[in-house]
Design goal:
Strand content: 25-35%
Largest sheet: 8 strands, mixed
Number of strands: 8
Structural class: alpha+beta
Number of helices: 7
Order of helices and strands: HEHHEEEEHEHHEEH
Number of domains: 1
Mean pLDDT: 86
Shape: globular
Radius of gyration: 22 Å
């Protein structure tokens, strides 16, 4: 009887165990472009003789980064498939009036998405840029992450007030990893420990619980320009809570560019 009782306790303890933690999956695409010159051999993912400009200085502003990403088919496929089914998705960038009010937060809608014909379930995405540049025998140069987080939280809250069905804050890491000493170019990225301020931020207590979080990675592995050789990654860190969209907003979206 004692043996049977112990067996029952072991079975109960087994089913009381906490489930294993869920790990967020980062989708990643790497690409390289080389001219076809008629040579018998073409090499990919090799450094050009003259180093090109850092990805941290390639773009004039945040708007340029967003437009560059949304013109990339690989990135759009990752984004659309994570937020919608594989139906047609309409996107607009830098949307202002009549959806936003001049000189008031959030200023403009960085990315507006909706499935074709389903404007009543639109997604508004606020984007913020973090830059990390590897240096020779030094810690990487990283811009002020705290400032990015505070501004992103405040502006994403403005999207909630506008009345979108879903709202996300997208943190885009422009990562120049060319000077890291890893022999495998794919792993020439800023070490996680250098980005603790970004990854360990307490989003749950600081940001509206309805807002989702997306991390996007733009990696420069080689001395080449980011338009020639790059890595693009995307991870949904926290899902947005879907709500009934404001009807007046739906009407404004339908009127965009019509």
């Amino acid at each position: 009887m004692k043996i049977l009782a112990r067996l029952k306790e072991k079975i109960k303890a087994f089913f009381r165990k906490e489930p294993p933690p869920e790990y967020k999956i980062t989708q990643f695409v790497i690409s390289d472009r080389q001219p076809i010159t008629g040579a018998s051999k073409i090499s990919f993912f090799v450094n050009n003789l003259e180093p090109d400009v850092s990805v941290t200085r390639t773009f004039e502003n945040e708007e340029d980064v967003i437009n560059w990403l949304m013109n990339n088919n690989d990135f759009k496929q990752m984004l659309f498939e994570n937020l919608f089914s594989k139906t047609s998705v309409i996107h607009h960038c830098g949307v202002k009036e009549p959806i936003t009010v001049p000189k008031k937060k959030p200023g403009d809608i960085d990315i507006l998405l909706y499935k074709e014909g389903d404007e009543r379930n639109a997604v508004g995405i606020e984007c913020k840029i973090v830059k990390s540049e590897s240096l020779e025998n030094q810690s990487p140069k990283i811009n002020k992450i705290t400032s990015v987080q505070k501004k992103g939280i405040k502006q994403a809250d403005g999207y909630i007030k506008i009345g979108f069905s879903r709202v996300f804050l997208m943190v885009i890491l422009l990562d120049d990893g060319r000077h890291y000493k890893n022999p495998n170019f794919i792993f020439k990225t800023t070490p996680t420990e250098e980005l603790k301020e970004l990854y360990n931020f307490d989003w749950n207590s600081k940001m509206n619980e309805d807002v989702g979080i997306i991390y996007v990675y733009v990696n420069q592995f080689t001395s080449n320009h980011i338009n020639q050789t790059k890595g693009l990654g995307l991870r949904i860190e926290r899902e947005a809570k879907q709500k009934k969209q404001d009807e007046s907003l739906t009407g404004k979206i339908k009127g965009l560019y019509s």
